[in-house]
Amino acid sequence: EAGVTQSPTHLIKTRGQQATLRCSPISGHTSVYWYQQALGLGLQFLLWYDEGEERNRGNFPPRFSGRQFPNYSSELNVNALELEDSALYLCASSRELGRGYEQYFGPGTRLTVT
Amino acid sequence: AQSVSQHNHHVILSEAASLELGCNYSYGGTVNLFWYVQYPGQHLQLLLKYFSGDPLVKGIKGFEAEFIKSKFSFNLRKPSVQWSDTAEYFCAVIPTGGGNKLTFGTGTQLKVEL
Fold first, then answer.
1. Is the CB of residue A79 less than 8 Å from the CB of residue A62?
2. B100 contacts in chain A (CB < 8 Å)
3. How far apart are CA B14 and CA B39, in angstroms?
4. pLDDT tens digits, B11-66
């Protein structure tokens, strides 16, 4: 069974630009989650999508947004990039809502903002 | 808001030594608890989980954890560590009905020396 995949592996952007990160969940998983792992801040919850809907959101500004497609893959968009957005962005997936909360993580996208 | 504390940030052990990593959470209600591991160069992997039932749970690679509700703790143990256990270990919690948002501890970096 293939795991969660993310692309790109690395992304370098300049301040003010937009970044788009992509995630494909494990087959059969309908929920996708995004987390930010920034140096000194640990792993922080960003967003949760299930069945195409945003279900929960962490304490991040609105310039962090995303969506989930009909095939359950997901995009995370970060607008008006700031230097402090530099971090590893992890995507996770789990089975449908109500069936447990095991989240399986992908390898991450390393975003560097210069 | 819930929080997770991992008191040991760096642990160095010799092979065959016993391991116990502390994890405490702050939340008054029912929780689901997890330990994740991140081996060097690899992505986060689920080590073990507690949802309900027997408070002593066994995971992969000989790890186990004990949920002590009265102490709000979920400590990770292994009787005899191996060099290959060198990794970063994260404790995480989701309150039941907590919107599938995993709250992570800051992680414990374990180094096992030969």
1. no
2. 31, 33, 48, 50, 55-56, 94, 97, 101, 103
3. 17
4. 999 999 999 999 999 987 888 999 999 999 899 999 999 988 999 999 999 999 99
Q: Check pLDDT > 60 for residue A98.
A: no
Residue B91: closest CA among B44, B42, B34: B34
Predicted confidence (pLDDT) at residue B8 exceeds the cutoff of 80: yes
Size of interface A-B (CB pairs under 8 A): 55
Q: Which chain B residues are closer than 8 Å to A87 by Cβ?
A: none
Do A106 and B104 count as a contact with CB atoms less than 8 A apart?
A: no
Nearby residues of A108 by Cβ (< 8 Å), 6 or more positions away: A6, A37, A88, A89, A90, A91, B43
pLDDT of residue A101: 66
Report the SS3 class of residue B84: helix
How far, in whole angstroms, is CA B88 from its chain's centroid? 10
Does the distance separating the beta carbons of A107 and B43 come in below 8 Å?
yes
